[in-house]
Design goal:
The chain is of the alpha+beta class and 450 residues long. It folds into 3 domains: 85 residues; 278 residues, Major capsid protein gp5 (Major capsid protein gp5 fold); 36 residues, no CATH class. Helix content is 38%, strand content 23%. The chain is built from 12 helices and 18 strands. It has a 6-stranded mixed β-sheet. A hairpin with an 8-residue loop joins strand 11 and strand 12. Helix 1 runs antiparallel to helix 2. The longest helix has 40 residues.
Amino acid sequence: MDELQKKLSQVETDLRGLREDKATLGRKREEAKATYAEVLAGDGDEQAAHAAAMEAVREYGECVDKIENAQAMQVDLLKLRGDTEATHRPQAPQAQAPIGWGSGHILADEQMQQQLAAISTSQSRFGSLELGQIATRDTLLAELGGTVYADTPGTDILPPTRRAPSGDPRESAMLTGREPVYPLAQRNKVSFLNLIPVGSTDGNLVPYTQERPVTGSSFAREVAEGDIKPEGNINDWIDADAPVRTIAAWMKTRKQALADYAALRTTIDSRLRYMVQLRLAEQVLNGDGSGVNLQGIIGTDGVGTISYSASVPLAEQVLSGITAVYLNDGAADGTVMHPLDWFSVMTAKAHNAADNAGSYSYYGGGPFGDTPMSLWGVRVVPSQVLDQGTALTADFGLGAQVLIREGVNVLFSDSDQDDFLRNRVTILAEMRAALLVWRPSLFQIVELAA
């Protein structure tokens, strides 16, 4: 047991050193990037500046990898020592964090509590404090993959595409005898992420091959004896790269709040969770690929467009997008649209010609009917992530994939903006991910306005 404790102490010492190295390398990386940007804007050795910037990025990534490995070793040693309290402290039912995501194992540490208590009452600067990883890569893989059930931690995942035939999660709960837990991060604006397959990566750049349909493509056909056999050129293949990008979100809290560990846990495990995944959703759809942005689906070359027509009802224009997905050898499994566009579709009315008073009736079930979140049998996800006047209908399951490089890490600082003067603290959470668009033609942008 003494040897385990010595090893644990060594790992924790290494972690502290690695986190200091990470802060130093982070500053070095930002300085190298800024230098490269200055060279691009003016004169200088562009090749040398680019090489220096890429070297700084590589060193930072290697340090992050070492921290992740050391944290995994730390958890293993705690388990071997039998210190389950330190790694999986039970939570009160009324304040229970969603499964697999939580800052309890970090905030339960006495040393961390002492640091936070000291910071909360201090009137001097403390700079920054890395809280640690509150969501592992596996946690994000499970969470983005579907619904998490409260009674089977980390094992019972039911993606939306594999629910009961009706698609109603309540029916799935009855079939399994369990009540599903819906984390805040899976609500509304980010729920369309559940349509996209999620995997993992260990690299900082993911090379892959996009599939593009070939104009005038030919399939296999009958051939007379002695004739030349046809070429089956259904698709062309385009080499592409998906860089891993850091997705970050921050929020403010009062410095005194750091001493309230229960409230702090709630803030971190719910609000920051939602903010990080909302930003990931925005990048997956709208990222422009410039700088540190992901190359989002909408801006990817090869994505189709259904032009707006004032004479065609909105629902039929969405049907045109669904049809285009089928024509590209896919099967639409989701449509994302702005809530106001969804409102327009749901409130569309037909004129009742038989009524002399000129009454109108809803095309759908109306306010008192059964109103499924679907159009033409395809699930609809209203989301403000997409601009009003535009819908995206696609075969998300076959067309794209999100790869998670690193889980969510949290950092405290009073050195941001005017935090020190206002006695506030910035809480920063960040993750690393990449987006692969395997088949751009399976995504159709539907214009719903001129």
